[in-house]
Automatic annotation (TrEMBL):
One of its GO terms (biological process) is SCF-dependent proteasomal ubiquitin-dependent protein catabolic process. This is F-box/LRR-repeat protein 15-like leucin rich repeat domain-containing protein. InterPro entries: FBXL15_LRR (IPR057207), Leu-rich_rpt_Cys-con_subtyp (IPR006553), LRR_dom_sf (IPR032675). Residues 66-258 form the F-box/LRR-repeat protein 15-like leucin rich repeat domain.
Length: 309
């Protein structure tokens, strides 16, 4: 008998009711009901294991062979994976398990995962491309534009894409997004210096469903804001922190045509003044006060409350 089989036998013996008159409890093992006898698909997975965090699920997975099978069945039905900021020493091994098991993901959050590379990301994208709606790759420095290809081309249900501080993001990738992704509702391409005005003018022409947009610390101009105001009329939140080239002209265009606007972040935009902000303050949240701005480090500033990792 192997160590694993002995361990499972011991667990079942512990589950038996205490009976001092029964000298051989293992004789009744055939009639013992364990947690693994409860219906997995209808009860255990949707009612119990769906409430566990990924860490708890992986801990349960190590208990026995039956627990491993059950945990992996739960991972297969899991709709969200959130490993944002997790850079533990063995996280890449755990992610390989997710690559194998997860088949129905809708939300994939991998912000600030400094271990993430193309060879780890591409398999999970291939397995879940039909259902993915949210992909968060903010501050993932070691993947390349190649990893975006399945997201751009195959994720037809994609609604949210976050690529803040991805220095590898190119104008070519934005052009490909323009061709294949017209249903985005939220996009974050802040702190991406390679993205120029030309590709953004074409990009925003197609995004008429956009509600949340972050362009912080990019080289956008008033011309881009005018295009956004003409084509993205459903916009509710926009982050323009550190966009030093924009002025009151662009802000007036956004506020006039985007009638659903609720949040406007324009700190460190020296050419944006009370001329455009004053009339908006009664019904829109604006982070820039009408006093002189404090000294802020633009490169380290990531402000938005509505674009949380």
């Amino acid at each position: 008998m192997s160590n694993v089989e002995a361990e499972e036998l011991h667990l079942m013996e512990m589950a038996l009711p205490t009976d001092t008159g029964n000298e051989n409890p293992t004789s009744e093992l055939g009639s013992v009901v364990t947690i693994f006898d409860i219906c997995w698909e209808d009860i255990l997975i949707p009612k119990v294991l769906s409430l566990l965090t990924l860490k708890e699920l992986f801990t349960f997975r190590t208990c026995s062979r039956s627990a491993k099978r059950l945990a992996e069945a739960a991972l297969e039905r899991r709709k969200e994976v959130n490993l944002s900021g997790n850079n533990s020493s063995t996280i890449d091994l755990a992610f390989s398990v997710l690559n194998t098991c997860c088949k129905h993901l809708e939300n994939l959050h991998l912000a600030r995962c400094h271990w993430l590379k193309d060879e780890l990301l591409l398999p999970i994208l291939a397995e879940n491309k039909r259902l993915l709606k949210v992909v968060n790759l903010n501050e993932c420095p070691y993947i390349s534009p190649m990893a975006l290809q399945p997201i751009i081309v195959d994720c037809k249900n994609l609604r949210v894409l976050k690529l803040s501080k991805c220095q590898w993001l190119t104008a070519g990738a934005i052009d490909a997004l323009t061709l294949h992704q017209n249903n985005l509702e939220e996009i974050d391409i802040s702190h991406c210096p390679a993205i120029g005005e030309r590709c953004l003018l074409i990009f925003f022409r197609k995004l008429n469903k956009l509600t949340i947009l972050s362009l912080a610390n990019t080289a956008i101009t008033d011309q881009v804001l005018v295009m956004i105001s003409n084509c993205c009329r459903l916009l509710e939140h926009i982050n323009l922190v550190g966009c030093t080239a924009i002025s009151d002209y662009g802000i007036i265009a956004i506020s006039t045509r985007c009638t659903r606007l609720r949040t406007l972040l324009v700190l460190c935009c020296p050419r944006v003044t009370e001329r455009s902000l004053g009339p908006l303050r009664k019904h829109i949240y604006i982070d820039k006060t009408n006093r002189s701005e404090p000294n802020l480090n633009i490169n380290d500033f990531y402000p938005s409350d509505f674009l949380i990792y």
